[in-house]
Amino acid sequence: MNTRSPGGQSFPAFFRSRSCSAAELAARNQPGGFWVATAIPAAADHAIVGSVPLDEVQRLAVLTDGAARIVDLFGALDWPAVLDNLSTRGPVELMRQVRTLEGADPQGTRWPRNKRSDDATVVYAA
After folding, report:
1. Cα–Cα distance, 42 to 54 (Å, whole number)
2. What is the spatial distance between Cα 73 and Cα 103, in angstroms, rounded to a whole number?
3. pLDDT tens digits, the chain, 126 residues: what are they?
4. Where are the alpha helices (H) located in the chain, listed in sequence order?
5. Please, what's the b/e burial string for 26-48 (b: 16 or more CB within 10 A of its CB; e: otherwise)?
6. CB 112 within 8 A of CB 16
């Protein structure tokens, strides 16, 4: 009996990734779901925004969801640790850590996700 999908994943991982993807796609850019920047201009109306007086800002980071996986999917760091990591090691090291975690679970068994790795961008200013 064949226990692999056409892509080589075990069937449980294959179906788990497909249902994760279907659920994610169904919730994306929908009321009650989550909003991402896309070619749909109305998505900007759902951005979470705020402000902080400039003299209170010591450092900041902007991460795409692919880079933010280190916190919100993998749980390898918290946000203060991300800032510390960026301050001492830089964005290349942070991305190496994300890619190492993705590579350690290519089938998405430990950390279910809709694709093995995601595009990732980090901007850090101090």
Report:
1. 28
2. 14
3. 334 434 444 434 444 455 556 777 788 888 888 788 778 888 888 888 889 999 999 999 999 989 999 999 999 999 999 999 999 999 999 999 999 999 999 988 899 888 889 889 999 999
4. 11-27, 65-72, 79-89, 91-104
5. eeeeeeeeebeeeeeeeeeeeee
6. yes
